[in-house]
């Protein structure tokens, strides 16, 4: 108790020290050596301040991004460095950053109080332009209905003076110089349009895009993904482009995001020309228009209404508390089933899912006409996996409260619907990266042991949807020791379910 009191008093003193700086306009300076930096080269800067502190620091953020625009934390920086003293020079590496706009913030004492006005700069690439993916699908079209989709955000390299043109495709489709594919489809079927991007240096790069033109329902099949982005994709070099390629290659329609890192959903959606809705942690990204949104529920979920043409879809994205963690309590702690349930309640997850399901009552009641998805990283195991017939860590059936609550609300676990046997199809999503337990959660003595692999990410549904397939996904062979160079940008597997829309 004394230690806690001392910590509280120290925190209060720190806050009292910071408040005068927050109340006044920043008096320091921050200047970049050059407002344009070639990718891979450092961004160099100088700084001055009257508030000398060994833990003053400069953070690099995407622009737009999750920088502390109101002098409060929004999301983690992409890069950072301590800048002690009343003046000095330093630099930050741009290795792994996607070319584009960025901003530096000069901040006080490991906090988010500005010491100077933020400074913007741009990372550029001298390489010949290239597409994130050379062949990819766009959103569906409909016969005799105006169509439009953009590809402008999917070219990398030297994009100075970038323009677009059509190289092939049906007469009804045009490609504007700004990269908008548009027109009015005249017949049903899948069409291919060739698109060329050209920069002012005369370099070109070609891609082919496909459009499924429907004569009836605009979206007869829906591909829904849940994806924990791992601190907004910042833990892996070139994270944004890897995320974009994955979504394009898998032809995803809608995404429930967790660990949004402030604005990752905005960056992804902007590059794809999609719609998005986000808070600092959860988000919804959609190939089709978002028409309504629901603010954060229980600090752990957001929702959006998506227009699929003939009907709408309600998509909820949830991210529940992470500690204590049930599989560790079971496999390392060997607690009783009742203790496991009690620990789930103390984690906050049981209360969070109860509040989310309650907030969904209206949507669930209307699901016969407007299907509902509840997707997310629940940080909790499923009672559909821990069964009497599928012993885990010496346990038989364990009624994990979050999955029981979702089932009791009338929602169906799409992965387990497609794969009824947890013994043959475990579908583990935690973790393709961490195969060895690294400690923490009160179980440091078990560090170095195999990580309990479990399914904690879900795509649940209710309404006129039929599961055609469901799978857990990642790309490459993720490394635990050198994750920055992984092809896969998350520490979770994603879950992709393909639905027939009724």
Global morphology: globular
Report the span from N to C terminus.
58 Å
- Summarize model confidence as the mean pLDDT: 94
DSSP helix fraction: 10-25%
Number of helices: 9
Q: How many strands appear in the DSSP assignment?
A: 30
Biggest sheet architecture: 6 strands, mixed
- Gyration radius, rounded: 24 Å
Q: Which regions have little confidence, pLDDT < 50, spanning 5+ residues?
A: 1-23
Oligomer: single chain
Strand content: 25-35%
- Spatial ordering of strands, largest sheet: 21-22-20-19-30-29
Structural class: alpha+beta
Produce the secondary structure layout.
Blueprint: H1 2-23, E1 29-32, E2 36-38, E3 43-48, E4 57-62, E5 79-82, E6 87-92, E7 100-107, E8 119-124, E9 130-131, E10 135-137, E11 141-142, E12 147-150, E13 155-156, E14 163-168, E15 174-175, E16 180-183, E17 189-198, E18 204-214, E19 221-228, H2 239-249, E20 254-258, H3 264-272, E21 275-278, E22 283-286, E23 290-297, E24 301-307, E25 312-319, H4 326-331, H5 337-347, H6 349-359, H7 361-365, E26 372-377, H8 401-408, E27 412-413, H9 414-418, E28 457-462, E29 465-473, E30 494-501
Parallel strand pairs: 2-8, 10-18, 11-18, 19-20, 25-26
Antiparallel strand pairs: 1-3, 3-6, 4-5, 4-7, 7-8, 9-13, 12-16, 14-17, 15-16, 17-18, 19-30, 20-22, 21-22, 23-24, 24-25, 26-28, 27-28, 29-30
Helix pairs in contact: 6-8
Describe the structure.
- The chain is globular.
- A hairpin with a 5-residue loop joins β17 and β18 (204-214).
- The chain is an alpha+beta fold and 502 residues long.
- The chain is 18% helix and 33% strand.
